[in-house]
Amino acid sequence: MRRGLRFVPVAALAAVVVELAVFVGVGRAVGFGSAVLLVFAASLLGLVLLRREGMRAWRGFRAAAQAGTPPGPQVTDGLVGLLGALLLAVPGLVSGVVGVLLLVPPVRRLAGAGVRRAAERRVSSMVAGDLFGPRRVRVRRGDAPPAAQPEEPGRAAPTVVDGGRAIEGEIVER
Hints:
Layout: H1 2-5, H2 8-30, H3 32-67, H4 72-89, H5 93-103, H6 105-122, H7 125-132, E1 141-143, E2 160-161, E3 165-167
Antiparallel strand pairs: 1-3, 2-3
Helix pairs in contact: 2-3, 3-4, 4-5, 4-6
């Protein structure tokens, strides 16, 4: 994790350079005043959407908590919406376009799935189950391994069913 943090200043500088280059290009194409007005309008819209997305995320989290359902889907959807609104509020044309894209429902669902996968990789299975509910497991049927021994002490060997074919899966502890 810390190794990746050393690239944050370089990435921030690159983002500023890209934003300036795009602003200059748009300013030359449509005029400086129009470009400034476009950035200002996008930032204002982002601030309005930031409040709306924040309230929406909070209501979704509270509804899930009151219903006793896992709040993970509402939290990831809210995080992606807040990130989209925040990127739209930050002055810049490239960040504004990325922010608008994150607010479009299909892109939002795709980004939310990515956030969910990243969160599931970083937390234990138990915490992921509490956040997102039971995991979906892909099952592949294939030949049983020659020696079906448990890989770790305390874990069960693969269950052999269907005429000697093993079904691979994940053990989820409650």
